[in-house]
């Protein structure tokens, strides 16, 4: 991966280039004017991972730049600071290395460091080793945890030592409310917290006045959108295949006093079969699908987008909220739906400044 060159003065120009590119790419679908949500120009990533490079007595963070002409040729990039990472991560980076440099038990065969932080300054640090972690390591790690004022986890092959806790709590101000999210180590969370706030606010706005109907959400993760949107609907049924994410989503619903949403552990494909009456069993009967009146579906699929069959099933819903991390697969899916649904709102969320990546949000309404 290339290390982004951060120059805040150039940020408006790079965002405008993305706006132009997305507007032109989707022009054939006649969307409304693109709503553009800017990121902070620097210090926007709440989570990062770095290789820890050992060079004699020296110890530093490293990333690798791959030669596009020869993918096997990787150049080591030394990182003393990382301006795309949160202020908390940048403050911790030198403190962590300074603390372990002369402590052999903590330093020996340390391979990688991962940081998970929040807008309120909470931090979780995971240290990954190429050796087993024993009681001596844990005693030293307890000192390090207290010294840095963070929660610390150690990982090695078939080992995971959690000293304090395995999560942080992010609190996001969205639409006049403060939403609390448990974010668990080594599971997916939105990396750009300010853009996540913008996405949640946009989705709430797009689905306002929906209390007479129900929402079904596919790929719900840790309940990121579920928590924000539950108040807009009579009931919410969210599905997710990851066991860790389902558990975290349930914690997040409870933390925000949400009692009209249920999270079911099921893939999007399985749920579609259940909805069509093609799948039975205990999990399906527990969902009591006959009690719902789904007026809106929210999908937030991986980069591959929706396969043709899954996309076809979206036609059944009067309203579709589609969050996409890949404009190309989004375009293909929207093209498939274009004869039955029109684009009512279209948004660009600059999740990853200084890269070509674009996150989009689309509200589709039945024609």
Rounded to the nearest angstrom, the distance between the terminal CA atoms is 42 Å
Helix content: 25-40%
Estimate the mean pLDDT confidence.
Answer: 93
Low-confidence runs of at least 5 consecutive residues: none
Beta fraction: 25-35%
Number of helices: 11
Count the E strands: 17
The value of Rg in angstroms is 22 Å
Return the string of H and E elements.
Answer: HEEEEHHEEHEEEEHEHEHEHHEHEHEE
Note the main sheet. Answer: 8 strands, mixed
- Gross morphology is globular
Widest β-sheet, arrangement of strands: 1-16-17-15-14-11-12-13
Secondary-structure content class: alpha/beta
Describe the structure.
It is a single chain. This protein is of the alpha/beta class and 367 residues long. The protein has eleven helices and 17 strands. The strands form three sheets. The chain has an eight-stranded mixed β-sheet, with helices on both faces. It is globular. It starts with 10 loop residues before the first helix and ends with a strand.
């Amino acid at each position: 991966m290339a290390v982004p060159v951060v120059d805040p003065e150039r940020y408006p120009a790079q965002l405008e280039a993305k706006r132009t590119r997305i507007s032109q790419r989707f022009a054939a679908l006649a969307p409304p004017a693109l709503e553009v949500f800017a990121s902070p120009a620097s210090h926007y990533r709440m989570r990062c991972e770095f290789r820890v490079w050992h060079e004699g007595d020296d110890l530093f963070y490293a990333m690798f730049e791959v030669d596009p002409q020869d993918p096997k040729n990787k150049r080591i990039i030394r990182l003393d600071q990382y301006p795309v990472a949160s202020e908390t991560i940048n403050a911790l980076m030198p403190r962590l290395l300074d603390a372990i440099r002369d402590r052999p038990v903590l330093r020996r065969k340390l391979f990688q460091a991962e940081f998970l932080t929040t807008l309120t300054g909470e931090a979780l640090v995971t240290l990954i080793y190429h050796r087993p972690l024993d009681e001596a390591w844990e005693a030293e790690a307890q000192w390090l945890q207290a010294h840095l004022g963070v929660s610390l986890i150690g990982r090695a092959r078939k080992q995971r030592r959690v000293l304090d806790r395995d999560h942080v709590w992010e609190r996001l101000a969205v639409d006049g409310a403060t939403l609390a999210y448990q974010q668990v180590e080594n599971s997916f969370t939105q990396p750009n917290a300010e853009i996540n706030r913008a996405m949640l606010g946009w989705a709430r706005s797009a689905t306002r006045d929906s209390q007479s109907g129900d929402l079904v959400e596919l790929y719900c993760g840790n309940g990121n959108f579920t928590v924000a949107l539950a108040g807009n609907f009579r009931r919410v049924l969210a599905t997710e295949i990851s066991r860790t994410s389902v558990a975290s989503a349930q914690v997040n619903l409870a933390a925000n006093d949400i009692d009209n949403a249920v999270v079911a552990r099921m893939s999007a494909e399985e749920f579609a079969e259940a909805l069509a009456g093609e799948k039975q069993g205990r999990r399906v009967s527990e969902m009591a699908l006959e009690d719902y009146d789904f007026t809106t579906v929210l999908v937030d699929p991986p980069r591959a987008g929706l396969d043709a069959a899954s996309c076809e099933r979206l036609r059944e819903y009067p309203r579709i909220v589609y969050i996409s991390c890949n404009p190309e697969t989004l375009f293909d899916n929207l093209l498939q739906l274009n004869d039955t649904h029109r684009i009512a709102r279209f948004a660009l969320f600059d999740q990853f400044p200084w890269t070509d990546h674009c996150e989009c949000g689309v509200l589709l309404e039945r024609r």
